[in-house]
């Protein structure tokens, strides 16, 4: 197996995870606070997230997301049984993390061999996107922006008021290519009440997703089901 350290997904995914984790740390929701206590060991290697920016943090924490940790060695000649695994296990990580990774690798290899897939890359990074699926990056970015930069600043906003503030937010963004409204919340200036209801409904769904992703992240899962 190739053991070069690479990022399984785009850097932007990890930035969004970082930002939602920071949101969870600032939350007063009792469930989220309880989850954070339980996931404290899981996130211990992230350090002081609240007092830093993502770019500064990334320089010293990128390795957490690179493919590393427990590694499958490919040598067939060293195996006593053909249907087995040879693992290289680093001992400078916590036993809890390593055992979790070993179980994960065994489960994945069993699925791979049962399906007889020839080309399948096992992701071995310590922190991974949930369910081995790659969520839509554009949606996650928009949900984060609206949830963090508009809704959380005034959770009392609803309906047309929330929509107005979201539109103002996009208009005031510095980069022109970031000022364009996402299609799902753009009513194109329509006065049709059905159009307005559609976009406010989509916007309300984004807020719900923001709540759910924050909850998932607080227990060590990103993005999780939302």
How would you describe this structure to a colleague?
The chain has helices at 11-25, 30-38, 40-43, 54-61, 95-115, 137-151, 159-171, 193-218, and strands spanning 71-73, 86-88. It has 226 residues and is mostly helical. It has 2 domains: 11-64 and 131-218, no CATH class; 69-124, no CATH class. It has a two-stranded antiparallel sheet with strand order 1-2. Helix 1 packs across helix 8 and helix 7 (159-171) packs across helix 8. The longest helix is centred in the last third of the chain and has 26 residues, at 193-218. The two termini are 34 Å apart.
Shape type: elongated
Q: How do the strands line up in the largest sheet?
A: 1-2
The quaternary state of the protein chains shown equals single chain
Which sheet architecture does the biggest sheet show?
2 strands, antiparallel
Number of strands: 2
In the predicted model, the low-confidence regions spanning at least 5 consecutive residues are: 116-122
Number of domains: 2
Total helical elements:
8
- Binned strand content: under 5%
Helix and strand sequence: HHHHEEHHHH
Q: Give average pLDDT, whole number.
A: 83
Distance between the termini: 34 Å
- Radius of gyration computed on alpha carbons: 21 Å
The helix/strand class is mainly alpha
Which percent range fits the helix content? 40-55%
Question: Strands, helices and their partners?
Answer:
Elements: H1 11-25, H2 30-38, H3 40-43, H4 54-61, E1 71-73, E2 86-88, H5 95-115, H6 137-151, H7 159-171, H8 193-218
Antiparallel strand pairs: 1-2
Keyword list:
single chain; 226 residues; mainly alpha; two-stranded antiparallel ribbon; elongated
């Amino acid at each position: 197996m190739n053991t070069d350290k690479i990022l399984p997904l785009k850097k932007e995914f990890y930035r969004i995870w970082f930002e939602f984790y920071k949101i969870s740390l600032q939350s007063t929701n009792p469930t989220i606070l309880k989850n954070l206590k339980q996931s404290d060991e899981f996130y211990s290697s992230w350090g002081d997230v609240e007092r830093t920016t993502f770019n500064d943090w990334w320089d010293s924490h990128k390795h957490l997301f690179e493919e590393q940790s427990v590694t499958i060695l490919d040598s067939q000649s060293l195996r006593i049984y053909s249907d087995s695994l040879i693992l290289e296990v680093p001992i400078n990580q916590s036993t809890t993390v390593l055992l979790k990774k070993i179980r994960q690798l065994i489960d994945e290899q069993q699925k791979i061999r049962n399906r007889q897939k020839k080309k399948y890359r096992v992701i071995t990074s310590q922190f991974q996107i949930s369910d081995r699926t790659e969520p839509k990056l554009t949606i996650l970015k928009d949900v984060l922006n609206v949830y963090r930069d508009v809704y959380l600043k005034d959770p009392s906003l609803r309906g047309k008021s929330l929509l107005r503030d979201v539109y103002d937010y996009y208009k005031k963004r510095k980069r022109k290519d970031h000022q364009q409204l996402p299609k799902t919340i753009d009513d194109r200036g329509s006065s049709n009440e059905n159009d307005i209801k559609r976009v406010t409904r989509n916007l309300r769904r984004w807020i719900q997703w923001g709540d759910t992703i924050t909850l998932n992240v607080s227990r060590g899962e990103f993005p999780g089901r939302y």
